[in-house]
Amino acid sequence: MAVLSPAKTTKLTSEDEPAVKRSKGGIAGRLFQWLSTAAGLTILVTLAAVAGFLILRAWPALTASPAELQEISWFKADSLLSYVGPLIFGTLLASVLALLIAVPLSVGIALFISHYAPRRLAQGLGYIIDLLAAIPSVVYGLWGALWLAPVLNPIFEWLTSSLGFIPLFAGYQPPAKNILTASIVLGVMILPIITAVAREVFLQTPRLHEEAALALGATRWEMVRMAVLPFGRSGLVSASMLGLGRALGETMAVLMILSPGFLYSFFLLEPGQHQSIAANIAAKFPEASGLSVSALIATGLALFVITLVVNMFARWIISRRSEFSGAN
Amino acid sequence: MLGAAKKERLHMSKRIEVNDLNVYYGDFLAVEDVSMTIEARSVTALIGPSGCGKSTFLRTLNRMHEVIPGARVQGKAVMDGQNLYADDVDPVEVRRQVGMVFQRPNPFPTMSIAENVLAGVKLNNKRISKSDANDLVESSLQAANLWNEVKDRLARPGSSLSGGQQQRLCIARAIAVRPDVLLMDEPCSALDPISTLAIEDLMSELKNDYTIVVVTHNMQQAARVSDRTAFFNIAGTGKPGRLIEMDDTSTMFSSPSQQATEDYISGRFG
Amino acid sequence: MTTLPLSSTPAAPAPPGRGAASGTARRSRLKPWAPWAAAGGSLVLAFLVTLVAGTPSFASVVALAAVFYLVGLTAWSRIVEGPRWATDRLATTLVTFAFGLALVPLISLLWTVVSKGSKVFSLTFLNTNMVGVFGDMTEGGVYHAIIGTVLITAAAAAISVPIGILTAIYLVEYGRGPMARGITFLVDVMTGIPSIVAGLFAFSLFTLIFGPAYRAGIMGAVALSLLMTPVVIRSVEEMLRLVPNELREAAYALGVPKWLTIIKVVLRTAIAGIVTGVMLAVARVIGETAPLLLTVGIITKVNWDLFDGLMTTLPVYAYNQYSQGGAGVDRAWAAALTLILIVMVLNLIARLVSKFFSPKAAR
């Protein structure tokens, strides 16, 4: 009964050929392997090209004398370095403020999703937070400039009138086109990135650790503090660095909200004090030509290097962590 | 009809001779110096404690070990005069002639029952007429004792079947390529006793047409289904696995020549 | 209500019945309705306070009530349950508030975009361009911007998707040793490239080759593909790793060569996840503004030629209209609404694809 019917199926076998010779498929296989390896190498080549072309185009500005640079209408500094300095300061200040806002919130949200909200809801809640990441940056810019700034206005007025003796909060002038508004928007923008990583890390906490803590009679918060947070610490650091990397390079929100200035200043509420590298490029690039393009690309190169360092640091922490904990 | 079929199939079942075969994972010698003859149209069982290299050895018979990075083989495995490890031999061709069934049933989740049976043909971009395909599906499923259970739902996904049915589907899929040899790596270890019985019955039928090599942890199973049994053992962790002895199954289970074999079979260790 | 326990004497903690010395002392707990009562009380109190201070607004009442709730419930719990449980309640409250606070920007943003955007959003808005629109004219639309966005994003996808999928295949199926590790690392680094730097790169590359005045949609597409490729690689890689090894082995054992196994088994099994990942990557780059601002700029009419001349894209259009002010702001909101609708539809399709087309047994 259980016998193959021979009549028609015999065609399929390779009876006439010698048993196991190399088939022609080998060429296609090698071509495919070669193709996918080449695609992998493209990544390497592309990154090298990004660095190479930026350096190439920035070169005229990097080698120009201050006198040549000062012929650019907006260039009011002694050298390229003293021009880019306040920009780097502004970029870092805005990003660090954004981080200060986003990290505690993200930790709270991630904990809420991973350990407090009902299990059934967790995925949906995570999806809601992810929605924040799907919103285009230009929309954040519109929202920050036209909705958030007026909303913040009374709060900032109160801050500067009652806490104005602290330099940080002195000198507020409406509208709220200052670096703190920009940082709040940046903070909202990096919130989903940090939350997503933090959530993953918290969910990976070994159940045994959690149960051990609970078995000792810990409250939920004590369990979180004893088991979840220590386990997730390095993950949180790298998540923050990823968020920082994103905030450093964000252009539109800063460009549309901040009224620019080129100072080393800690007056967070005063307009016309700060500017970020990315927003500065976007503001000046459309009208730039010749040496001014090179100068802007040189500032872009600085931004590239900074984000590269921050991201590599974040990845390094992640890879170190996965080696030690055995979790990925 | 039946007789004709038998004759047609006769030449397909092949015997394998293995000579001084060593298997390495990187620098680690996993299986040392195996020589054995696997007879055509019979069931050969490989038994032994966990980690003794019997599964590794089984994989070298169709070069499936090469899927694992760093795994390599020294020595010879000759199937009807053709060394499987000769330079001009394509491992892909070897696998078309030496089929394999795995520990856990693994039907392709994106394919229907019928498509799963035809997978070996379809995945290799071979053209096959509709009626040929239907015949191949029916004959393979019949050979795997599954036809009557699934003939009304060939278009359903393969994953809709029970575990035992899925494993028989995988056997049907393997024999649809019409191999000469069928390797089975603990094919029943993930199945319930009734499904196991069905697979064992199937093995006894299939050996009329195929050379079957089966790795099993279950000594009753080895005793029930196999004609010859090979016992592998390992001296200790980090040491290579070796073939201790091989003989007719009845001899192995009644009067093995090695003490280690007797200890293992009588359940003193392993 | 919540303030009541505040006024009660703090010297009346645990119930007196059992001594604290007894190891099995039954802990006195707040009733399950306590948080709700506290919330209601806080709201009422906050409303009254703001009413006394001035006109209550929704935001100020909610903010004040949150503070009252935080202080009130913690104090109540401290009195009844003791400090450990009070800290626990405080943490729960803070964590919940954090989530609630995150909803504020999301809801206000979506609400603002929808309400302000719908002012000039219409079918006409979607299929007219900006030719002959100036001053305070409220006409004009985004037809040319939609065409530009679709063309440029499609071109970016056409570059990124093949490279991304092949690279992911290399990393999962072929890559071994230092080169694969290096590429994995570089992909991570690439994920962090600021979008404006991608724009500068595309600008540098094309102006060096075709002269300093060259502007074309393809420049924007190259910039976007630089941002999109690592996202595609990551998601495809994840999907390929989800395909069980047993399926690859099953195919190999049938005598199927590796490359056919990858194409017909691995990719076939992962296809839903790959499509989802690609759509999410498209949704991610479709809203990119800065690189397009540098490379493709803005014009008033439709340009179908990716390789010649300026093009308008939705995000740049929105920014441009915003910076012009006046009637432009309404168009900016409407463009933002259009953009968000496109992004949400892409996201929705992506989720549906992954929900309905992934093989059931593979999970």
From TrEMBL, chain A:
Annotated Gene Ontology cellular component terms: plasma membrane
Transmembrane segments: 31-56, 87-113, 125-149, 179-198, 251-269, 289-314
Keyword terms, alphabetized: Cell membrane, Membrane, Phosphate transport, Transmembrane, Transmembrane helix, Transport
Record keyword Membrane present: yes
Example GO biological process: phosphate ion transport
Matching PROSITE patterns: ABC_TM1
Localization in the cell: Cell membrane
Membrane topology: Multi-pass membrane protein
One MF annotation (Gene Ontology) recorded for this entry: phosphate transmembrane transporter activity
Every ABC transmembrane type-1 domain range: 88-314
Family matches, as NCBIfam families: phosphate_pstC
PANTHER family assigned: PHOSPHATE TRANSPORT SYSTEM PERMEASE PROTEIN PST, PHOSPHATE TRANSPORT SYSTEM PERMEASE PROTEIN PSTC
Described function: Part of the binding-protein-dependent transport system for phosphate; probably responsible for the translocation of the substrate across the membrane.
Family as reported in the entry's similarity comment: Belongs to the binding-protein-dependent transport system permease family. CysTW subfamily.
Name of the featured protein: Phosphate transport system permease protein
Upper lineage: Bacteria, Bacillati, Actinomycetota, Actinomycetes, Micrococcales
Automatic annotation (TrEMBL), chain B:
Keyword Cytoplasm recorded: no
Domain ABC transporter: start-end pairs: 16-259
Any one Pfam family match given in the protein's UniProt record, by short name: ABC_tran
Superkingdom assignment: Bacteria
MF-aspect GO terms: ATP binding; ATP hydrolysis activity; phosphate transmembrane transporter activity
Coiled coil: none
Keywords for this protein: ATP-binding, Nucleotide-binding, Translocase, Transport
CDD domains xrefs: ABC_PstB_phosphate_transporter
Keyword NAD: no
GO biological process annotation, one example: phosphate ion transmembrane transport
This protein's GO CC annotations: membrane
NCBIfam families assigned: 3a0107s01c2
Protein name: Phosphate ABC transporter ATP-binding protein, PhoT family
Annotated source species: Sanguibacter gelidistatuariae
TrEMBL record, chain C:
Domain spans labelled ABC transmembrane type-1: 146-350
Protein name, as recorded: Phosphate transport system permease protein PstA
Region (Disordered): 1-24
Transmembrane segments: 33-52, 58-79, 91-114, 142-171, 183-210, 216-233, 265-286, 332-353
An annotated GO BP: phosphate ion transmembrane transport
Alphabetic keyword roster: Cell membrane, Membrane, Phosphate transport, Transmembrane, Transmembrane helix, Transport
Presence of the UniProt keyword Zinc in the record: no
Organism annotation: Sanguibacter gelidistatuariae
Domain of life: Bacteria
MF annotations from Gene Ontology: phosphate transmembrane transporter activity
GO cellular component terms attached to this protein's record: plasma membrane
Protein localization: Cell membrane
InterPro entries: MetI-like (IPR000515), MetI-like_sf (IPR035906), Phosphate_PstA (IPR005672), Phosphate_transprt_permease (IPR051408)
Membrane topology of the entry: Multi-pass membrane protein
Job of this protein: Part of the binding-protein-dependent transport system for phosphate; probably responsible for the translocation of the substrate across the membrane.
Family: Belongs to the binding-protein-dependent transport system permease family. CysTW subfamily.
